[in-house]
Design goal:
2 copies of one chain form a homodimer.
Chain A lengths: L1 E4 L22 H4 L14 H10 L5 E3 L11 H4 L12 E3 L4 H14 L3 E4 L16 E4 L6 E5 L4 E5 L4 H8 L18 H7 L6 H4 L2 H4 E7 L5 E4 L13 H4 L8 E8 L6 E9 L2 H14 L4 E8 H10 L14 E9 L2 H17 L3 E7 L2 H12 L1 H7 L2 E8 L7 H12 L8 E8 L4 E8 L4 H17 L18 H4 L2 H14 L16
Helix pairs in contact in A: 10-12, 11-14
Chain lengths: ~525, ~525
């Protein structure tokens, strides 16, 4: 039976950063030992810091030569949210204007100082953290919304605007952002663009290659590329902005974003389903595409292990929204313009789900508070794994039919070796069914490098073998750069290298990342 | 009052090529005199033709040294559909496989023979026609649909598959193509991708940068770049396919396309509105976005002059679907999953339009035949102008509020000079309101170069002055390449040149086009 969601569920802030692990992760350079610091790059000198202090005010230049990361003021920038990657930069700059970034990069390019761009530092592939001693250029203090046109729905914002802040700005104007992710309270729009972030509503609104209308980018030599078009259609020459979407800051530093935003929906509904098998998850998804069609805006799934982990670690005080102990859960969202039409479609869909025995239990949110509460069971999964110890996180894409097979195979593989629930604990699977995108996560003993390497190999090899992608929406960063030659052809790698060398001949922009063999 | 469309309207084939003009357009090289044939490129020799005949069967190599274009078998390939551009190639190749194109380009790159890729030859900017004697590589004989996955909706097709054929293939499987344009019966999916074609449903499904999942491209040196991913999400390194979408064949030759196709809608409705002013067109559009929201799939407009021209030249035997002689007409389409819901939304919208006096007359199609018939009044406008004489066609984008102001200003400008209805006849405006995309067209005396140049200047300057685009969906080709430095910054042009030189160092791919200063 479908029940309404009547419990008073706690509302959580989605973006709180959790750091429950006992110790900092080892230096990335100690983990990925085949990548060496390039001696093309100069070491930072006092004269360099003096120069940056002529561009930025003193409080926007953090220089810390402290070797002990436990007390270094740069540790929050050297390390990522998941505590998976750590560099040893001695300098973090906080520009407030594009012209400052232009001067910084021009100087770094001339002096051969390597740079790593950083936004909200929520990425999980280490793309935003230094590999060695690269200078961090953090966009957090470039956080103005430059303009919004309520007729076209086009917003132009500084790279450092936090996604949720942009959404909050748009809401009273009747618009919303076309992407939504768990990190929305911390991640920045410039970082979203540089990562080509996907998130929860990609199936409805498409990816950033379609929604970004223009970018302002500072090129490696300091040139400001003003490509901030607000036109929906513009075929004048090459579509330059596309180069920088998903390039992880290796071709330039995104400083401004022009984004097409959709209208805020008049009616939003969400339902959580309890399902007995991944086959049932797929059936429920196909039926949702048939019955809900143009109003379907998200279809997420997770397994029982995810559900129990979130309850245990994050939502101890909240009752389960669905009592039954199911193997799988799904959360679907609709966005439409007429509540009564949407409700009729949803009712017909849910009735069909029950009559065909595809789902055996479910709950629908009755108000915004319950909507937010239900979302928590999905959105807080990554935090739950981080809070539980050293986290392994993967982000793979493949045919929907294969999506959960990977989790089963991982469990079987380590089960046969006696490593499941000993070395590899909390092995969970969840993700975006609509996009064929699985997140598989696990905990391992504190910074156990061998366990990390072994699981990396197993998961990436599995994905490549099944014609999947080793990174669906999180980027290559430094975490997966060693696997690029295994999942891309020689021609693809060569063309990527050609682009990198043409646009960043000195290789100063986020070196060692995304594309191998560019130094 | 809204009436149902009961007349039995004639159904037309949308893609018939009309060539009613008396004479062939002059050679492009005689019109755009500042562009000279580069002596970097070798002249075609018999040994070259001999080589191509070792790769292709004899009937797939058309060589014609005939100087008189009236009898040359290559004229259909040297000249475009609109009879606006004409080159003087002596050789057209029709490869049937990607490996043949690889061999052709490898040879041309080594011998410094310039190449122009060509699909359905429906482009209007001359991008697909030779400027001088470039070898034409036509993809018409690469026309297989390679695969289709009915679960994900991903279709993989040869570049030469005609858009309408792909749509007809998908229809019985419950899917449709995400782009639709008047030329659908002739244009090819590879050409659509290379032009970044927009069309009638971009406002609903977004552009090809979002819908293309992967491409197979032969690079200028003959390397086959197999980038034909069928994954909806894949962030492994740079998104290489984006380079070639809208690059007009200047960076490589697209040979295969992986396309995400949406479900065929269960309910399609269209209505034609009669409106008294462009202000009313905009109001009707904003109200449509409010009331029809997620089901709105197209919102097109045209002026009375367009309507009368189509009646006079193309649809003489068809009664006007709306009797009133209005200043403007709009055609809106909805695509949804429940006819009764869509009908309710449309009824509410049309009632509001009438009650607020925004529209004064309208008609709704009652079946597929009437739907097709109503579309004809919009889709046949370009053919009508071609059939009426030497055609001027423009494709500009700007703020919706300014869209028709350009047509008024053109008329006023030439009216004040006594040239309206004498030199410049049939000045009409129509386009895609939802995308801020106007097509302004006119007829001029037979190949009157002075009139052409003058109108080019006026229209492009107007668009640039109003922060618009001089080409919204048709590309730069050769027609607008001289205007690139006026609408793009030095940094933008420089980056485009950098890309061109890095990927096509010999400049053999579609030279003289899209980006200036690359030879």
């Amino acid at each position: 039976m479908f029940r309404n969601c009547r419990q008073s569920l706690r509302l959580f802030h989605t973006s709180r950063i959790v750091r429950a692990q006992k110790s900092l992760t080892p230096l990335t350079s100690d983990k990925i030992t085949n990548i060496k610091r390039s001696d093309k790059f100069k070491q930072l000198e006092h004269s360099d810091i003096d120069y940056f202090q002529t561009i930025l005010t003193t409080n926007n230049v953090i220089h810390d030569g402290e070797a002990n990361p436990e007390i270094s003021s740069l540790t929050p920038y050297n390390t990522d949210f998941f505590n998976l990657h750590r560099g040893s930069s001695k300098l973090c700059l906080f520009p407030t204007e594009t012209t400052q970034i232009s001067k910084i990069l021009k100087y770094c390019n001339e002096k051969k100082l390597a740079v790593v761009p950083q936004g909200g530092n929520t990425g999980v592939s280490g793309g935003q953290n230094p590999m060695f001693d690269e200078i961090i250029v953090n966009t957090s203090k470039m956080n103005k919304i430059r303009s919004f046109d309520p007729i076209s729905g086009v917003a132009v914002a500084d790279a450092g605007v936090v996604l949720e802040n942009l959404d909050n700005y748009l809401a009273p104007l009747g618009y919303t952002v076309p992407l939504d992710l768990g990190a929305k309270g911390s991640c920045q729009i410039g970082g979203n663009v540089s990562t080509n972030a996907g998130g929860l509503r990609l199936m409805r609104f498409g990816n950033l290659h379609g929604n970004v209308l223009g970018l302002e980018v500072v090129l490696p030599d300091g040139t400001i590329l003003d490509n901030l078009s607000t036109l929906r259609k513009d075929n004048t020459g090459y579509d330059l902005k596309q180069l920088f979407i998903g390039a992880e800051g290796t071709l330039g530093l995104v400083t401004g974003v022009s984004l097409l935003t959709p209208r805020k929906p008049k009616a939003v509904n969400i339902a959580m389903l309890a399902l007995d098998s991944f086959d049932a998850v797929q059936k429920a998804f196909v039926m949702a595409k048939e019955d809900l069609s143009e109003i379907l805006s998200a279809f997420e799934f997770w397994d029982r292990e995810s559900m129990e982990l979130v309850k245990r670690v994050m939502l101890q005080d909240s009752p389960y929204p669905i009592e039954a102990k199911s193997s799988f859960y799904a959360l679907l969202e609709t966005q439409g313009s007429r509540q009564e039409h949407d409700q009729e479609k949803i009712d017909a869909y849910l009735t069909r789900l029950m009559e065909t025995d595809v789902a055996h239990d479910g709950v629908m949110a009755q108000d915004a508070k319950q909507t937010n509460a239900l979302w928590q069971w999905r959105e807080r999964i990554p935090e739950a794994i981080v809070k539980s110890g050293t986290a392994m996180t993967y982000d793979v894409a493949m045919d929907v039919q294969l999506l959960y097979k990977m989790v089963e195979d991982v469990k079987q593989h380590y089960g046969e070796r006696g490593l499941l629930d000993t070395t590899y604990t909390n092995v969970i699977g969840f993700g975006h069914v609509g996009d064929g995108n699985l997140h598989i996560m696990a905990n391992i003993p504190d910074h156990d490098r061998k366990a990390q390497k072994d699981m990396d190999s197993y998961v990436y090899d599995w994905a490549i073998k099944h014609n999947g992608s080793i990174t669906a929406e999180h980027g290559i960063g430094v975490a997966k750069v060693n696997y690029m030659t295994r999942c891309k052809t020689e021609a693809q790698i060569h063309l990527m290298q050609t682009l990198k060398k043409a646009i960043d001949p000195n290789g100063i922009m986020n070196p060692y990342k995304a594309v191998p063999g560019t130094l």
